[in-house]
Amino acid sequence: MSDEGMTGLSEVTAQEDLVVQVALRAGRIMIENGSEITRVEDTMTRIAKNAGVADSKLFVMITGIMMSITGKQNAQIEPVKKRTFDLEKISAVNDLSRQFAAHTIDLVTFESALIQLEKHPKYFPFWLQLIGAAMVSGPLELVFRQSLTNFPMSCVIGAAGWAAFYWLNRWVKVRFLSEFAAAILIGLLAIVAIRFNLGTSVDDIIIGGIMPLVPGVPITNSVRDTLAGNLVSGPARGVEALMSAAAIGFGIALVLRIM
Amino acid sequence: MQLIVMLVSTYIATVAFSILINIPRHALNLAGIVGTFGFFIYWLYMYFIGGYVIANLLGAVVIGIASMAAARYKKMPMILFNIPSIVPLVPGGQAYQMVKNFALGNTELGTKFMFEVIMIAGAIAFGFILAETVNRVSVRIPTKWAKRWLRENRRNPKL
């Protein structure tokens, strides 16, 4: 009799541990890839609720997450170490959470799907990213400056800047340094292009070329987080955006000053 | 003619930026449409009335509301449509002019462009705040009315 009670109790505890583990993993994936804090809190609470844990407590920050089940002894911590922008993963976690809410997958499948998501990320191929960078630079140069003569060089230099950023990001792992180096490359290439009469205005080419590096994700998230009342994580995102903008700005300023 | 070129370039640029931040394939087109729509509102205000601060504010409000509608339609996170759409409104040109003038020692001109950048960034942020308010209120009002109507008419026979 008492034996049965004991096994029942440990099963419940194991189930609750699994719930917290899955929720923490989902939350960490979302923050790592550039989600807002509110969305993470919402998703984690929903996962716990749909798994049968009605009341859970959360403390989500941009550098780590804590979660505990109300009335239980232990909380679990999950640090967030790296930070990239990959909205595909956020959308995938969102879809999985919706499927879990509709009971088409169970908790174990959910966790293995999350592990798969981390192991095999789905990126656009590199050549498509290069074309993407070119198609950000050229058209935005047209929108901002309306000069058709500088359009081709903008495309080429924007793609070159993105390629430099992409490769450096793999080696250096510090986003600001890669942005700084990419900005220097963009500035140098623009000046060289003018020397060889491939364009008419350094300004237009550089403005187009730096557009792929614009920190769109931190800007949007800092506004949304601050607005939702996350007065620590929102401004932290804002600092991230400012650092990126300053890195690009210093890179360009350095080139303009020297050449 | 110029407007068509601009709108097409905005669409291309928004979709291309979505590729760079790895947005799921079946959200790309809608993100481009939201971005183009926001820029169109910005352009309309700039062309007919003028004044870049209000124009950016209106553009950001429209992007915020439209991306919420897109998110509800596609059942996907709102930031998928939000982030690429503001890229055409980002004050890249002014920021570059600011950096250039500071680097070359033209502090006065640099300060002028710095104020423009700060004003535009503030306008976009405030536009998002307004859009968020509209999004929340537009959810609340129908449910509130529906609840009140249900409470007042609960003893009535069903319509």
UniProtKB/TrEMBL annotation, chain A:
Topology class, membrane: Multi-pass membrane protein
Alphabetical keyword list: Cell membrane, Membrane, Transmembrane, Transmembrane helix
Naturally occurring in which organism (per UniProt): Secundilactobacillus oryzae JCM 18671
GO BP terms: succinate transport
GO molecular function ontology, one term from the record: transmembrane transporter activity
Chief location bin: membrane
Domain Threonine/serine exporter-like N-terminal residues, every copy: 22-258
InterPro entries, per database record: ThrE-like_N, ThrE_Dicarb/AminoAcid_Exp
Subcellular location: Cell membrane
GO cellular component: plasma membrane
Bilayer-spanning residue ranges: 150-168, 180-198, 241-258
Pfam families in alphabetical order: ThrE
Protein name: Putative membrane protein
Family in the record: Belongs to the ThrE exporter (TC 2.A.79) family.
From TrEMBL, chain B:
UniProt superkingdom: Bacteria
Segments forming domain Threonine/Serine exporter ThrE: 8-134
Membrane-related topology note: Multi-pass membrane protein
Compartments reported by the entry: Cell membrane
Keywords: Cell inner membrane, Cell membrane, Membrane, Transmembrane, Transmembrane helix
Any GO BP: succinate transport
Record InterPro entries: ThrE_2, ThrE_Dicarb/AminoAcid_Exp
PANTHER family cross-referenced by the UniProt entry: SUCCINATE TRANSPORTER SUBUNIT YJJB-RELATED (PTHR34390:SF1), UPF0442 PROTEIN YJJB-RELATED (PTHR34390)
Similarity field: Belongs to the ThrE exporter (TC 2.A.79) family.
Protein name, UniProt field: Putative membrane protein
Species in which this protein is naturally found: Secundilactobacillus oryzae JCM 18671
